[in-house]
Design a protein that fits this description.
405 residues; alpha+beta; Phosphatase 2c, domain 1; 6-stranded antiparallel β-sheet; 5-stranded antiparallel β-sheet; 10 helices; 11 strands; elongated
Length: 405
């Protein structure tokens, strides 16, 4: 008869069968606990009772309940110390109940308890119940087997027993250590980091009906823990012997990943795209602000230039050449050349309709060239511009002509 496994989704699950026995003498418990301010941890416990019908059932129940309550109460202790204290309390509670009732005398149980915090598995165990880690089809037993089975198997490997004799040996299930209230002879403890998606499986010895290949095949990586338990229990019931022992399983994946769901992936992708869009918008604004001073329209120098004066004005001192070059008279001669003779008509102001005759060069060179007026009273002609010496000689000729007159 199968009891439906409890659990759903990627979390832990528990399930059991009675097998060929009259009653269920196994017990199990799953609890969550606070682990020092970090992520919450899981406490997993499995116990296998012994000592007759009433005794075995009561021993496993007392052990699991006491272990869980003491562990959860000792919040200030590190996890290994909490496990050790809970184990001692469970052993004492089983011994006290055994001594209190004659019908429960000589009862006892095995126990395996493990905590899983993130990827760290810590455990303690007494007896032959199993703690397995299954990763990518590879099965590893993490805790020690406190029964005579390892010694019998060693005798078979050394040739002292045949494989068939070792498999059917009547002492295979004899326990070397168990929770009975007496001082514990053997206690196994350990701690191990697990790869992502490793299946942690706690089981009573009824699981040993299956081969390693059958267990590995049922514990596929893409299955939830509850499905794995269902498949393992179904496999046991399919080919179980008449005296099949009770079997109880507790399973959980280390670092469980949620089942593949496009909605979850879509939300993550949309979130990433939204973040990229926000970063892109911030970068665009920063570039605009950085380039703003250089993108303003440059002022039109033509529009800001003052209208041309009525007559040519001398260049400011700072704009004149530092020294006279070839074909240039000294500054005094240049100034005299620009001064028209006394009798010459002055330059008429530029009509409003005339276009300024500017020569715009590189920034900083604002020199203008405008057509000169002739010395006579005739309107401006397009005569070639005279150099300063020629203008001086022409002025002298005009002066001599006036004197002769």
């Amino acid at each position: 008869m199968t009891r439906a496994p409890k659990g759903s989704g990627p979390g832990p699950a528990v399930g059991s069968i009675v097998g060929g026995r009259d009653e269920q003498q196994d017990a199990a418990r799953i609890e969550t606990f606070e682990a020092g301010g970090g992520p919450p941890g899981l406490l997993l416990i499995v116990a296998d009772g012994m000592g007759g019908h009433a005794g075995g059932c009561e021993a496993s129940r007392i052990a699991v309940d006491t272990f869980g309550e003491v562990f959860l109460d000792e919040r200030a202790l590190p996890v290994p110390d909490r496990l050790a204290k809970a184990l001692d309390a469970a052993n004492c509670a089983v011994g006290a109940a055994s001594r209190a009732s004659p019908e429960l005398r000589d009862m006892g149980c095995t126990v395996v308890a493990a905590t899983l915090v993130d990827d760290c598995l810590t455990w303690t165990s007494v007896g032959d119940s199993l703690l397995l880690a299954i990763d990518d089809g590879r099965i590893a037993r993490l805790n020690a087997d406190h029964s005579l089975a390892p010694e019998i198997d060693r005798a078979a490997r050394e040739g002292r027993l045949s494989a068939a004799e070792a498999e059917s040996h009547p002492d295979r299930s004899v326990l070397l250590s168990a929770l009975t209230g007496a001082p514990l002879k053997l206690v196994d403890t350990g701690m191990q980091r697990l790869p992502d998606e490793t299946l942690v499986l706690l089981a009573t010895d009824g699981l040993l009906t299956l081969s390693d290949a059958q267990v590995a095949g049922a514990a596929a990586a893409d299955k939830a823990a509850v499905t794995i338990i269902e498949d393992l229990l179904a496999a046991i019931e399919t080919d179980m012997p008449p005296d099949q022992d009770n079997t109880t399983l507790v399973a959980v994946h280390a670092h469980p990943r949620p089942p593949s769901a496009p909605a979850h992936r879509g939300r993550r992708i949309l979130g990433a795209l939204s973040l990229l869009a926000s970063l892109g918008g911030a970068l665009w604004v920063a570039l605009i602000l950085q380039e703003a001073p250089t993108t303003e329209a440059a002022p039109d120098r033509r529009a800001q230039r003052p209208p041309p004066a009525a007559s040519a004005q001398p260049l400011p001192k700072s704009a004149r050449p530092a020294r006279a070059g070839p074909g240039r008279p000294p500054g005094g001669a240049r100034a005299a050349a620009r001064t028209p003779p006394s009798g010459a008509p002055k330059k008429a102001p530029r009509a409003a309709s005339e276009t300024p005759h500017f020569s715009l060069s590189a920034p900083g060179d604002r020199s203008r060239t405008a057509p000169r007026q002739p010395a006579s009273g005739h309107p401006p002609q397009s005569a070639p511009r005279q150099s300063a010496p020629e203008a001086e000689r022409a002025a002298q000729r005009r002066s001599s002509s006036v004197k002769r007159r």
